[in-house]
Each structure stands twice: as structure tokens, then as C-alpha cells.
Amino acid sequence: MEKWKVGILLLGAFLLCAAFTPRSKADEWNHKTVVTFHEDVEVPGQVLPAGTYVFKLFDSMSDRHIVQIWTSDEKELITTINTIPNQRFRPSGHTIFRFDERPGDAPQALQAWFYPGATIGEEFVYEYPTPYHNYGD
Q1: How many Å apart are CA 42 and CA 79, to the nearest integer?
Q2: Which helix (H) or strand (E) holds 33?
Q3: What kind and span of H or E run contains 41?
Q4: Does 98 score more than 90 pLDDT?
Q5: What is the pLDDT of residues 103-120, one digit of tens each?
Q6: What is the sign of the dihedral through the CA atoms of 35, 39, 43 and 47?
Q7: Is residue 132 very low, low, confident or very high in pLDDT (cuts 50, 70, 90)?
Q8: pLDDT tens-digit profile of 34-58?
Q9: Cβ neighbours of residue 51 under 8 Å, at least 6 residues apart?
Q10: How far is the CA of 85 from the CAs of 82, 95, 100, in angstroms?
Q11: Rounded CA gap, 30 and 57, in Å?
Q12: Nearest of 101, 103, 100 to residue 112 by alpha carbon
């Protein structure tokens, strides 16, 4: 009978500890962010029409600066983009998207993305031709 009580106490202690153990969320690893753009937004290689998208870091142990952009239901991968690290001095409690203005009627270009609480974000690199490029070649 005494062993039974000790077993119940140990089981209760285990369940109590398990209840207070912090839960890790997949979003913290892949920085999953759902965002709605009300206007077209340029990302390297294409323009995203106004709408809802899911941004995630690619699940890679060797390179944490690969961003995937998915449809809102995450059934279709739209693009995968290599980024470079961009640092902020203070973390923010919310997601930050920084944009670079483009001339004329061109859509704003996504320049950087910071996950809540992070000081290192993702900077999007655009390859634009130099003004001296000869298009006749």
C-alpha cells in the first residue's frame, strides 16, 4: 500500500512539472508570420498582388536566412528567397516589415522583415541593372 502512495505522489509531481514546462512553438523556429498586404508588394524576383501571405524561414540548420513565401492556406509555395542578416538595436514586440519606395507607379519593395522579439531580421536583396548597363549587347 505504501509503494502505491509513493507511486501516485511521483506521478502527480511529474504531471505538475509537465504542466508548467514551457511549450516550444514551431512559429518561434520558423518565424511563421501571416501578413495581409493591401497593395501590391515587390519581393526579389516578382510582385505579390495584394492579399494574405505566410512568411517562414526555411527549415535549414546550415542557413537561417532563406525565406519562403506561401499562400494564405500554406498549400502553395510562391517563392523562396535568399536573404542577408539585418540587425536592429532593440527588439520589437511585433512583426516589422520595412519597405523601400520605388519611383512612379511601381509597388513598394519589401526591404526587411523582423520577427517579434528578434534583433536579427531578414534583408531582401534586389538585383537591379546598373545605370550604365548596355541593353544592346
Answers
A1: 12
A2: strand 33-37
A3: strand 41-43
A4: yes
A5: 888 899 999 999 999 999
A6: positive
A7: very low
A8: 999 999 999 999 999 999 999 999 9
A9: 36, 37, 72
A10: 10, 16, 17
A11: 5
A12: 100
Cell of 101: 519606395
CA nearest neighbour of 114 among 87, 133, 78: 87
For the whole model, what pTM was predicted? 0.72
CA atoms within 13 A on the CB side of 19: 6
Task: State the residue for C-alpha cell 514551431.
Answer: 26
CA–CA gap between residue 83 and residue 90 (Å, rounded): 20
The whole-angstrom separation of Cα 61 and Cα 50 is 32
Task: Read off the C-alpha cell for 118.
Answer: 528578434
C-alpha cell at 105: 507607379
